[in-house]
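Journal club prep — side note

Before the paper discussion, L.F. wants everyone to see what a predicted structure for a comparable chain looks like in token form. Sequence:
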Amino acid sequence: MSDAVLVLNAGSSSTKFGLFDISESAPRLLCKGLLDEHQAKPVFSVTDPAGNHLFERRASSDNDGDALIADILHWSNDYLAGSKLAAIGHRVVHGGHNFRQPTKVTDKNLEAMAALTPLAPLHQPRCLFSIRVIKSLRSDLTQIACFDTAFHHSIAPPVSRFAIPRRFDDIGVRRYGFHGLSFEFIASRLKEISPALAGKRTVTAHLGNGASLCAMRYGRSVDTTMGLTPLDGLMMGTRSGAIDPGVLLYLQQCGMSLDDLQHMLYLESGLLGVSGISADTRELLVSDDSRAAEAIELFTFRIAREAAAMTNTLGGLECLVFTGGIGERSSEIRQQVCEQLKWLGVQIDHSANDRGDECISTEGSRIDVRVIPTSEELVIARHCSRLLRAVR
């Protein structure tokens, strides 16, 4: 009987999942799926690794989340047939100061994870919701939390510090960074492509509805654009990214409540706020509205500006990687960013970029430019497999 791990990757409005066979040395994807809550009635769908449709169910109401999580669990058990579901792995966005590596979920550390909710109010509750639902259904099943912040614990002062009184740093108010599971995958993929490539001064751009950059070398994070919360850094789909704190003080003085500010910064800003049209770059890129063009211009400007800052931390730039939904699929966004980094020696092959080839830089480019699809689910499966083997 082979062992399997179910991986749940809860985002702000959808949950990706993957079922992996872990009986061999490396996890093997059996099937993957999506719990999509963008629509009025959420949809649970499953495909095989090649993308062939296996199953779909639409929820009966917009608050049928418990039932859909139960569906994923029950469907996985049925699909496995004679195999054993050994554990469920979860992406947990914030691990704070203490959670530096994957950990088995207990009542005590679940409470500690919940205490970090104010630092990731859109994401943390959804991550923990899945854990609690499964705990109520299968209290005997091992659950493992893998943290988006863990990869960035290698970041040290001065990069990790805020310029506020030291007593706050002493209690964990520091730069943490996010998208760590994605960046960890990219670091491993660079090593697979070439050990020499893994050693290069690299900036990875994870661009999606949430977006951040990571400066890395030899598989370690040395700087990132996000900080204490996933609100910092780049402009995103509906999030503002870095903003003058004086703006927030002023808006409070104008009568905005803390809840109103949080809602505006997380859900009404970014591409949506600037364009007034959409948070989706695909819609903005085909729009004739000048506000759409302005939003894209600001988005790519912020990416290029922060990439230059990451270059300073690294002491140079030798490799630029695009990943995430936008980074992997939008040739136009990649082109606009690279155009603004020409001064660093970035030159792209436009035909290769349009095709989405893995390497899109020209032979004469001083910077190696790559497009690498990420897989946070595979990273979580790897961590689960190692942890389960370690306790046997």
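L.F.'s comment for the group: The mean pLDDT is 94. Keep this in mind when we get to the figures.
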